[in-house]
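Suppose a classmate hands you a notebook page containing two proteins, each written out with its sequence and a corresponding row of structure tokens. How would you begin to make sense of it? This section walks through that situation. The first entry is reproduced here exactly as it would appear on such a page.
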Amino acid sequence: MRYIALAGAAATVFGALVFAPAAVAAPGDGTGAGLPAAHGTGRVTHGVAGPATAPVATYNGACGAGYGQDDYMNVTGGTVFLTYNSTNGYNCVVTVRTTSGAAVYMDAGIKLSGSSTWIHDSGQYTTYAGPKYVHAVGQCIDWYGVIGSSTAVQYNSHCG
């Protein structure tokens, strides 16, 4: 797993110049308009404490029976989990805080790569946002999570 941490600057990633905005607005309108633009395959993270070798939060089982943890991205204050159910072909995303507390803005979103419509759950939450699902057998997905002003997003991933 490789994390790319960018904050209002240009960086060279695998030989390509990548630009990131200085701030990322949360996509509260469902369009994903506030998310960083896709720069090919990979992750873009903002406000992340740094790459981690393990999730900083614990997956809470919110996606339901039959869903196994497939991937994760840490954000400041928690972790965005991607799960998959091989029986029904659905991916699920949930953003989980490290510790519950006063409500903060949170968001969890997922979509088929190439689609312009995010399926997401956003609001003021004390513990987690989501779950949200997309059927993606044989297709790539884009997924993201937000806690406060910390955002992590992955484009063109988990294809198949």
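The notebook's second entry, a different protein, reads as follows.
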Amino acid sequence: MRTAFISDIHANLDALEMVLADIAKQETDRIVCLGDIVGYGPDPNPCVARVRDVCEVTVVGNHDYAALGRIDTLGFNEYARAAAEWTTSALDKDSIAFLNSLPLKKVLDGMHLVHASPMDPERWTYILSYQEAKRQLGAFPEQICFVGHSHLPIVVEEEGEEIRALPFSSDVPVRIHRDRRYLVNVGSVGQPRDRDPRCGYAWYDSEARAVMMRRLEYPIANVQKKIVDAGLPPFLAQRLADGV
């Protein structure tokens, strides 16, 4: 079974359509979304509609919750807060209903799925250190957990007491060993932050026991114009080109 994972779309429809077109070429059996469909970007409703139509499983992200008013945005930076407020006013009733229906986490065929962290999904913890990765690896019984949230693609492998980060670059498969455990961050469709502005997604082949990252060019300038035209902070347009 080959599963494609998309995450952190952030209302970037151009990037999402590029990713979905590429997934269609990869003989993928299903698509899973790891949350943050909205926030930051100019096309929340079309992105929600596409995810609703194509994804077998979707979990909710913190920006989805923020747009619904289900979490406080005081901890957001000024740009994220402004985007959340704009998104709240832009969401239609179908988008609101779908986002409200999404779970915080899900287990699918032995894979643990969550937006931020398996131990405390409702606290939106970032997994950015070996210490945090070790803590989170102890929070789920499955061999592999797929996350998003940080927008930084990475594979963390646990072998006994040893934790290591494995290279996770575009089109280079990473082997999943049966006797080891894994955290896989699938990167971001709509707002990468690893200084590579290309949109990204990952797939996992359970028979080949391999996970792979895909990075793709998309029309960033088009999205930047839509952000500015919508009245969103210009910084949100600039960062797309910088990949930060």
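A careful reader of the second entry would note: The longest helix spans residues 78-90.
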